[in-house]
Amino acid sequence: MSRLQIELPGLQLRNPIMPASGCFGFGREYSQFYKLDQLGAIMVKATTAEPRFGNPTPRVAETTSGMLNAIGLQNPGLEKVMNEELPWLSQYDVPIIANVAGSTIDDYVSVAKRISTAPNVHALELNISCPNVKEGGLAFGTVPETAYEVTKAVKDVSSVPVYVKLSPNVTDIVQMAKVVEKAGADGLTMINTLLGMRIDLKTGKPILANGAGGLSGPAIKPVAIRMIHQVSQQVNIPIIGMGGVQTAEDVVEYFLAGASAVAVGTANFVDPFVCPTIIEALPALLNELGVDHISELTGRSWKKEWNLQSSSH
Amino acid sequence: MRQLKAELVSQTEIAYSIFEVIVYHEAIDEQFQPGQFVHVKAGNGYDPLLRRPISICHIDPEKHLLTMIYRAEGKGTRLLAKMVPGGVVDLLGPLGQGFPVESVGAGDTAWLVGGGIGVPPLYYLSEELTKRGVTVKHVHGFQTESVVFYEEKFKALGPVTITTADGSYGEKGFVTTQLDHDADYLFACGPSPMLRALESYPAKKGVYLSLEQRMGCGIGACLACVCHVQGDETGLAYRKVCSDGPVFRAGEVVL
């Protein structure tokens, strides 16, 4: 067995690296750069029942070591994703994690029910944490009762395991994690973006047309690491970690914090080859750390019996 | 489209905060088309994080040189401006859909209209059009005299009219007042208000506008730079400035 191979609910991954939802479209653009079946999995762009145009532009603004976005869940809608995007992706031997979004529980249920039947969709990522839409999205991810309700409703209809994408924009991330675990979530993905804003000095107004947006990139990595460190000690379901991952070292840090796989988001915009580059760099880094299999690293930062120095060989 | 680690050959401040940078890479050739752009990484670190879209001002396919002109105004472009010959410039490109040079023929006449930092891609366009026997005329608008550039270079290709908003150089006012109405084509690049004013220019054969927009990935994946499609009643149709554009036929997208 390859030392990068990972098994998670619904997912047999050749390696634990996958592009994060919203940062990779449905893969078409990046397929011009490399063969997508090198990836562990692909988290595709959020899909809603109906097509969405999203927010007015400007939709992105740069920040110190990061960026704000307020795309607003632009997507071609369930029908087109089912009939065009997912079939196109099926030419690649790579599991798809379909990101499901909506403004009502019925929306989530109808998308989840249908999209989970696509042959190459091996898991769902329940997006209850998008900060850029007026209804739904974040509203579901910041109130424990509604997070529970939507997770349970989706679990009831999904043909594949359900991972819930948690928002960092909460007071108690552990509580949210526990609630969705109780509702039947098979795994967690964390973190979605942090709410932020930039203001243009010339106009005196926010740069983003939407006002606020979601902060991503290296700037948010310490927040994600801390949250995964906390949550992974309190739940019994695996975590796919994300937030500012740029290098193989970042991936190891996420594993040490408690992640079992890692998604790469904003870095794809900077370096289209970032995912294959990280995958290629991991074995040498595992050698350096004296680790046979990457999964040995999960949670080592808090597992008392582990100590990287003493375990090297 | 490729990722190129190009070598910086020269960098010159040709007007106030306006830099001309020339880079070399063996893959730079005639596949780089007028109106396309390259996505440039400024610095090696995480700050600034994103790439900068910069238009193609000139290509020397034999020597594999790419000339870009940019304004140093943000963190990224100011970093780029500090780079010296021998430095490595990480760029993705060529990206996007450029001007329809192939459809313009010998004997056609064309207005090339640029605003500010929208002027540079018109130089490469003007070179390619004149090579095809097209008669070109240029109108370039700038804020003020200190930021005017490439006037002589354009003059070698066809007549040039310069306008400045403050009247410190050339004609006072905007580019739109300088156009006669007898051209077959109009090609323009500049800020949105200028493009909106040119959208209805009565060219006999076509008006093509190159849009500026904040971009993320530059390759069509992140949906940061979308615009609406004219006449689309659903409000759902869109074009991506980075990969469907940046050049659009007038009337295709909502400016």
TrEMBL record, chain A:
GO terms for molecular function: dihydroorotate dehydrogenase (NAD+) activity. It holds the Pfam family DHO_dh. Pathway: Pyrimidine metabolism; UMP biosynthesis via de novo pathway; orotate from (S)-dihydroorotate (NAD(+) route): step 1/1. CDD domains: DHOD_1B_like. FMN binds at S21, K45, A46, N99, N127, K165, I191, G217, G243, G244, G265, T266. Residues 4-286 form the Dihydroorotate dehydrogenase catalytic domain. Binds 1 FMN per subunit. Its EC number is 1.3.-.-. One of its GO terms (cellular component) is cytoplasm. Its cofactor is FMN. It is found in: Cytoplasm. InterPro entries: Aldolase_TIM, DHO_dehydrogenase, DHOD_1B, Dihydroorotate_DH_1, Dihydroorotate_DH_1_2, Dihydroorotate_DH_cat, Dihydroorotate_DH_CS, Dihydroorotate_DH_I. Heterotetramer of 2 PyrK and 2 PyrD type B subunits. NCBIfam families: PRK07259.1, pyrD_sub1_fam. This is Dihydroorotate dehydrogenase. It comes from Guptibacillus hwajinpoensis.
From TrEMBL, chain B:
The keyword DNA repair does not apply. FAD binds at R52, P53, I54, S55, I69, Y70, R71, G76, T77. [2Fe-2S] cluster binds at C217, C222, C225, C242. Pathway: Pyrimidine metabolism; UMP biosynthesis via de novo pathway; orotate from (S)-dihydroorotate (NAD(+) route): step 1/1. InterPro entries: Cyt_c3_hydrogenase_gsu (IPR012165), Dihydroorotate_DH_ele_sf (IPR037117), Dihydroorotate_DH_Fe-S-bd (IPR019480), Dihydroorotate_DHASE_ETsu (IPR023455), FAD-bd_FR_type (IPR017927), FNR_nucleotide-bd (IPR039261), PyrK_electron_transfer (IPR050353), Riboflavin_synthase-like_b-brl (IPR017938). Signal peptide: none annotated. Its cofactor is [2Fe-2S] cluster; FAD. Residues 1-101 form the FAD-binding FR-type domain. One of its GO terms (biological process) is 'de novo' UMP biosynthetic process. GO terms for molecular function: 2 iron, 2 sulfur cluster binding; electron transfer activity; flavin adenine dinucleotide binding; metal ion binding; oxidoreductase activity. Keywords: 2Fe-2S, Electron transport, FAD, Flavoprotein, Iron, Iron-sulfur, Metal-binding, Pyrimidine biosynthesis, Transport. Binds 1 [2Fe-2S] cluster per subunit. Heterotetramer of 2 PyrK and 2 PyrD type B subunits. Responsible for channeling the electrons from the oxidation of dihydroorotate from the FMN redox center in the PyrD type B subunit to the ultimate electron acceptor NAD(+). Belongs to the PyrK family. This is Dihydroorotate dehydrogenase B (NAD(+)), electron transfer subunit. The lineage of its organism: Bacteria, Bacillati, Bacillota, Bacilli, Bacillales. The gene is pyrK.
